[in-house]
Amino acid sequence: MEEEMHTDAKIRAETGTGSSPRGPGCSLRHFACEQNLLSRPDGSASFLQGDTSVLAGVYGPAEVKVSKEIFNKATLEVILRPKIGLPGVAEKSRERLIRNTCEAVVLGTLHPRTSITVVLQVVSDAGSEARAVLTFALDNVEQKLLMSSTKGLFSDAELQQCLAAAQVASQHVFRFYRESLQRRYSKS
Amino acid sequence: MAAGFKTVEPLEYYRRFLKENCRPDGRELGEFRTTTVNIGSISTAEGSALVKLGNTTVICGVKAEFAAPPTDAPDKGYVVPNVDLPPLCSSRFRSGPPGEEAQVASQFIADVIENSQIIQKEDLCISPGKLAWVLYCDLICLDYDGNILDACTFALLAALKNVQLPEVTINEETALAEVNLKKKSYLNIRTHPVATSFAVFDDTLLIVDPTGEEEHLATGTLTIVMDEEGKLCCLHKPGGSGLTGAKLQDCMSRAVTRHKEVKKLMDEVIKSIKPK
């Protein structure tokens, strides 16, 4: 059964710190998500934000090689393919980030001695030419910092500003997830 | 009896120590292991440094070679880091192509060099568009007992401070490079990035400078790279349990004190080198 669900969300919120003219503005680019678009993986999704889009497929819980199995939880594996060229050291580093982040949130203990494989393909990449780029992954319950990856030089104050802006922005993303899942499950 | 308990329930064994705010090796939660550094030990390399963080040992050798500058940046040279985790350092590594851990560490060091601007790549250019230096920084771990990133960053910094490049002039008539080995000069090191690593236990406790066992039991890790002005070059947290903003601030202040300790050690060691 193919189920296609396309949700558009255009989110724009402004948060300013009164005194500073360079206050953190929280304006997310238009983002969209499509689920179940591939037939062979057990689960798939395509996520688009502005001009950047990534396609993801998940296989699992499936058989795992004896050398890789963990007795009490699922073995998570992430494969990231860049848009052009062969995967290199930078991709390995990102795979490790994504894998560790997912391991912290996925309930792997429900599927011991199995493997869950996530395959990501970068379809288009529109980066930014900023002085520093900070990427955070936050959880929705307590807004704690799960993952952080930075590029460029920045001060402690700037870090706190970016973290606060990320916390506000993550609320919008979570609301989008909740709405799209509600819509999907109310249909079926 | 304690050894038996440690084998059967390593996490519980560890928690008993953490409850008393200390660790099995006697350190406090915020204490680093004894750090020693030795520079200039590899005579065939342009610069070298050996760093020991407790049992973790990393040696860095820097070799300089000529290369043509990149076409999109004709006035820049190259700095190419590579971290090698051979089977010698730990039983978890096999011989063959670099494993994930080594690749992640190499990418981390490359990011630190790029973000902190430790060397201005323009300084490595000899003749724009024609000739530039490429510095191959090889970091080899000789003993793996946790906290490899801190040791690698320190070794790289110490080795780069030790690098002496000979003077190169381009002969106008033959268009060949002439190297004057008698006239050498040190690199211009603009910033001093220092890495501080933490391990997160049970989603709440933060300990500094984890050993190999502690890293294995931890639920998350965090590495902060700071330079002398308190600016952050890298905040590397590859997943794991969540951290609140307040805990992050504690880590920042610990990173600042660590930077001072490392800088003092580095200055002492540089001063003790007899000029050639």
Automatic annotation (TrEMBL), chain A:
One of the Pfam families matching this protein, by short name: RNase_PH
InterPro entries, A to Z: ExoRNase_PH_dom1 (IPR001247), ExoRNase_PH_dom2_sf (IPR036345), PNPase/RNase_PH_dom_sf (IPR027408), Ribosomal_Su5_D2-typ_SF (IPR020568), RNase_PH (IPR050080)
Organism: Aotus nancymaae
Stretch list, region Disordered: 1-23
GO cellular component: cytoplasmic exosome (RNase complex); cytosol; euchromatin; nuclear exosome (RNase complex); nucleolus; nucleoplasm
Entry-linked SUPFAM superfamilies: Ribonuclease PH domain 2-like, Ribosomal protein S5 domain 2-like
Keywords, ordered alphabetically: Exosome, Nucleus, rRNA processing
Record's protein name: Exosome component 5
Gene responsible for this protein: EXOSC5
GO biological process: defense response to virus; DNA deamination; nuclear mRNA surveillance; poly(A)-dependent snoRNA 3'-end processing; rRNA catabolic process; rRNA processing; U4 snRNA 3'-end processing
Gene Ontology molecular-function annotations: RNA binding
Bias type Basic and acidic residues, positions: 1-13
Similarity remark: Belongs to the RNase PH family.
Exoribonuclease phosphorolytic domain: residues covered: 28-133
CDD domains hit by this protein: RNase_PH_RRP46
Lineage: Eukaryota, Metazoa, Chordata, Craniata, Vertebrata
Subcellular location field: Nucleus
From TrEMBL, chain B:
Keywords: Acetylation, Cytoplasm, Exosome, Nucleus, RNA-binding, rRNA processing
Sequence ranges assigned to domain Exoribonuclease phosphorolytic in this UniProt record: 31-166, 193-256
InterPro entries on file: ExoRNase_PH_dom1, ExoRNase_PH_dom2, ExoRNase_PH_dom2_sf, Exosome_comp_Rrp42_subfam, PNPase/RNase_PH_dom_sf, Ribosomal_Su5_D2-typ_SF, Rrp43
One of the record's GO molecular function terms: mRNA 3'-UTR AU-rich region binding
The keyword Lipid metabolism is annotated on this UniProt entry: no
GO process annotations (BP): exonucleolytic trimming to generate mature 3'-end of 5.8S rRNA from tricistronic rRNA transcript (SSU-rRNA, 5.8S rRNA, LSU-rRNA); nuclear mRNA surveillance; nuclear polyadenylation-dependent rRNA catabolic process; rRNA catabolic process; TRAMP-dependent tRNA surveillance pathway; U1 snRNA 3'-end processing; U4 snRNA 3'-end processing; U5 snRNA 3'-end processing
Subcellular location: Cytoplasm; Nucleus, Nucleolus
One GO CC term on file: nucleolus
Family affiliation: Belongs to the RNase PH family.
PANTHER family per the UniProt record, alphabetical: EXOSOME COMPLEX COMPONENT RRP43 (PTHR11097:SF9), EXOSOME COMPLEX EXONUCLEASE RIBOSOMAL RNA PROCESSING PROTEIN (PTHR11097)
Protein known as: Exosome complex component RRP43
Organism: Aotus nancymaae
Primary gene name: EXOSC8
